[in-house]
Design goal:
By secondary structure, the protein is α/β, with parallel strands linked by helices. Helix content is 43%, strand content 16%. Strand 14 and strand 15 (422-425) form a beta hairpin. The mean pLDDT is 97. The structure holds pyridoxal-5'-phosphate (PLP).
Length: 455
């Protein structure tokens, strides 16, 4: 028994009869039918009709080592046999969680030596809210409650994560959000209509943090949270001036700096963590997705010495945790993922070879009539679709053309995702130079097919 064999049509019918998908218009999907993905290997997927598709999104930014890695399957199988589950409540622990904690401290920036485990990125950000408020209580400054985030940020979909995030559509459905979270502008140069140059714009946008701190009173501000590069918001790569200025402002007012590295962690930008790429020293790092290459769900928070020293010396119970915090099988797969990233020098390859090659191939797409801007860092990239290049004219309403382009991608055997009219991609980190060439060829074909429909 288990998973049965059926035709695409049969799957689609059962799918809409029973399965409520995440972030989906249920009625719209029922009319169209889902794409049924049946198997995968390396950087490729196959649908139930046997079509081969290049996965330019690494699943959902997570399958960094590609599909079909037997080492990860074996690590999970061995751990399932040895100890499939035990908790870390009530003063117990187990070798997989301990080993992974040590390994994370080893690959993380020097000042991050402790970890709290969760089951996902969203849960990890909920944990962050708890940790940050606990820290300031222990420090005797309980008024420091407010966390400053950014418009268009994605920090997950639990109520905590969605509150921290800056997605308007999510807030509109959420009703009352958790108090003590405010949002400032995002460093989105392409979307900016003023006349500051890139670097001046980066400084000015970071300056919004200082303006907000002064408005609220620094004595009320607990932390700032940001993705080194906003992912789900459309791969928003900030100007080089942005993050150093954010760091300076956090230091000046003593507020905690949180980097949500659920996407940028574990090699996506050619360093173990995106914070290293941007030269910042966060007090807390959220991770998930790539830590297990997506094979099993695991997330967590890397806790810097500044916070850990207070948490571990002040005593008293931290009244927070999850049944699956430090799940042994997920930890075993994470350990193997990190070992493979390290031993196969995957991250060095992204930094020195595949990242620069992807940047070059993507930059070549900028000559296309439909393309207003291309930007990449490491293996994370965006293509902005425009109606007219010079003077720049965007499509209205936003999103229809992106949607057409996303469908053209599927039709041509490529997964790219659309965010409004921005086409984003983040292929598995094991993609080769030749496969990047193939991806760029497919992307140009998708742009041509889209242009034929909309220009
Ligand atoms: C995906 C994501 C999350 C949420 O992770 P889940 O595992 O889906 O809960 C949080 N932050 C960022 C930056 C993400 O990309």
């Amino acid at each position: 028994m288990g998973v049965e064999k059926r035709t695409t049509k049969e799957w689609q019918k059962l799918d809409s009869a029973h399965y409520l998908h995440p972030f989906t218009d249920f009625k719209g999907l029922a009319q169209k039918g889902s794409r049924i993905i049946e198997k995968a290997d390396g950087i490729y997927l196959w649908d139930a009709d046997g079509n081969k598709i290049l996965d330019g999104m690494a699943g959902l930014w997570c399958v960094n080592l590609g599909y079909g890695r037997q080492e990860l399957v074996d690590a999970a199988t061995r751990q399932l046999e040895q100890l499939p589950y035990y908790n870390s409540f009530f003063q117990t622990s187990h070798p997989p969680a301990i080993t992974l904690s040590r390994l994370l401290a080893e690959v993380a920036p020097e000042h991050l030596n402790h970890v709290f485990f969760a089951g996902s990125g969203s849960e990890s950000n909920d944990t962050i809210i708890r940790l940050v408020r606990r820290y300031w209580q222990l420090k005797g400054q309980p008024d420091r409650q407010t966390i400053i985030s950014r418009v268009n940020a994605y920090h997950g979909s639990t109520i905590g994560g969605a509150t921290l995030g800056g997605m308007k559509g999510m807030h509109d459905q959420l009703g009352l959000t958790i108090p003590g979270v405010v949002h400032i502008e995002q460093p989105y140069w392409f979307g900016y209509k003023g006349d500051l140059d890139r670097d001046a714009f980066g400084l000015d946008t970071a300056g919004a943090l200082e303006r907000k701190i002064l408005e609220l009173g620094a004595e009320n501000v607990a932390a700032f949270i940001g993705e080194p590069i906003q992912g789900a918001g459309g791969v928003i790569i900030p100007p080089a001036t942005y993050w150093p200025e954010i760091q300076r402002i956090c230091d000046k007012y003593g507020i905690l700096l949180i980097a949500d590295e659920v996407i940028t962690g574990f090699g996506r930008l050619g360093e173990w963590f995106g914070s290293q790429h941007f030269g910042i020293k966060p007090d807390l790092i959220t991770f998930a997705k790539g830590v297990t290459s997506g094979y099993l769900p695991l997330g967590g928070v890397l806790v810097g010495d500044r916070v850990a020293d207070v948490l571990t010396t002040d005593g008293g119970e931290f009244t927070h945790g999850y049944t699956y915090s430090g799940h042994p099988v997920c930890c075993a797969v994470a350990i193997k993922t990190i070992e493979l990233l390290r031993d196969e020098k995957v991250i060095e390859q992204v930094k020195n070879v595949t990242g620069p090659h992807y940047a070059k191939r993507w930059a070549e797409l900028a000559d296309h009539p439909l393309v207003g801007e291309v930007r990449t860092t490491g293996l994370m990239g965006a293509i902005e679709l425009v109606k007219n290049k010079q003077p720049r004219e965007l499509f209205a309403p936003t999103g229809d053309v992106g949607f057409i382009c996303r469908n053209a991608c599927f039709a041509n055997g490529l997964v790219m995702r659309s965010v409004g009219d921005t086409m984003i991609s983040a292929p598995p980190l094991v993609i080769t130079v030749e496969q990047i060439d193939e991806m760029a060829r497919l992307a140009r074909k998708c742009l041509d097919d889209t242009a034929a429909q909309v220009l």
